Amino acid sequence: MSVSTFEERAAEDAVNTGAPRLSHLQLLEAESIQIFREVAAEFQKPVMLYSIGKDSSVMLRLAQKAFFPGPIPFPLLHVDTGYKFHEMIEFRDNLTRELGLDLKVWRNEQAILDGANPVALGTQRCCGLLKTTALLDGLRNYGYDAAFGGARRDEEKSRAKERIFSFRDKVGQWDPKNQRPEVWNLYNARISPGESIRVFPLSNWTELDIWHYILLENIPIVPLYFAKEREMIVRGDSLIPVEQSFVKALPGEVQWVKSRLRSLGCSPCTGAIRSDADTIPKIIAELVGFRSSERANRVIDHDTDGSMEIKKREGYF
Fold it and tell me: In this predicted structure, which of 44-58, 176-190, 194-208 has the lowest mean pLDDT?
């Protein structure tokens, strides 16, 4: 018996039943909505991890559709390192206020007070304190047993190993060799007290799928994704946004460059790309010619071999 894809099976069903065939995006949307509803039904206290980026924006729209006309039945949790772009925080606050969402913000205040930053500590130590520890403490503090994340399998190789329902042990750690089989769209939500599940409704989406859906649904996104003249530290091929005072530029390195952010993270660790794409159709056209990952300009993914997988095993999203 041959193994068909979700889309092939849906097309076959459409032929057999005479129903109209769904588009690629409609199939992805339907799968994600089913995952949201499954989690809301199976878990006692789910939460959506909200990173403010484009994937979070799509997740938010999907969650709205999943529970329409009712409200989203779980809060949003933003792990704030204190180094997110100012435009991201402004966008987060405006959007959640306009939509009336229940936003929780969690920070590792002690590490921030102690001056943790990637220049002083290195990116691994800084991420460990401001992201991983903060995330695990936040989830533990509120008692969440399932956390939605916007990771996609096409982003990065360790994310490609994740199940849609990804099991975490009692200390929040991930073992990629100790995960539950997922047959078609059947998920195992059974956990013991203290254990939790990370859930990835966008696992099967690609970067281009995300942008096509944002265009189709007219989803608001952070303006940093659009190209304009920005002040950058130009160091080799890297464009480092001028935002944090502890990132020192050498003479002649600060320049105005027409650029945009392809992926959003902490401002000292997220490089920009040179671009003229100032609209969503232009971004889509630009991406068609790219062969590198959208996270290629994220320092934290490349500080050591397999650095993202190491962080994820420790509890990082």
Answer: 176-190
Structure tokens at 184: 């078609």
d(CA 308, CA 317): 9
Q: Is the dihedral of CA 273, 274, 276, 278 positive or negative?
A: positive
Q: CB under 8 Å to 218, separation ≥6 — which residues?
A: none
pLDDT digits (tens, 9 = 90+) for 46-72: 999 999 999 999 999 999 999 999 999
Distance CA 213, CA 26 (A): 9
Q: Which residues pair with 148 in a beta bridge?
A: 48, 199
Pairing of strands 103-106, 146-148: unpaired
Of 280, 231, 205, give the one whose Cα is nearest residue 85.
231
87 CB burial (10 A radius; 0-12, 13-18, 19+): middle
Going 159 to 44 to 219 to 88, the CA torsion angle's sign is negative
CA–CA dist 280, 219 (Å, integer) = 11
Task: Look at the block and give the residue holding tokens 């097309």.
Answer: 11
**For position 5, what pLDDT does the model report?**
52
Q: Nearest-CA neighbor of 167 among 5, 13, 17, 313?
A: 313
- Supply the DSSP string of 239-275, one letter for each residue: EEES--TTSPPPTT-EEEEEEE-SS--BGGGB-BEE-
Task: Band the pLDDT of 293: cuts 50, 70, 90.
Answer: confident
Prior bond to 46 cis, omega within 30? Answer: no
Rounded Cα distance between 10 and 23, Å, is: 10
Asked whether 266 and 80 are in contact (CB, 8 A), the reply is no
CA angle 78, 187, 56 (to 5 degrees): 25
Flag whether pLDDT at 178 surpasses 90: no
Look at 6-15, 72-81, 88-97, 285-294 and tell me which has the smallest mean pLDDT. 6-15
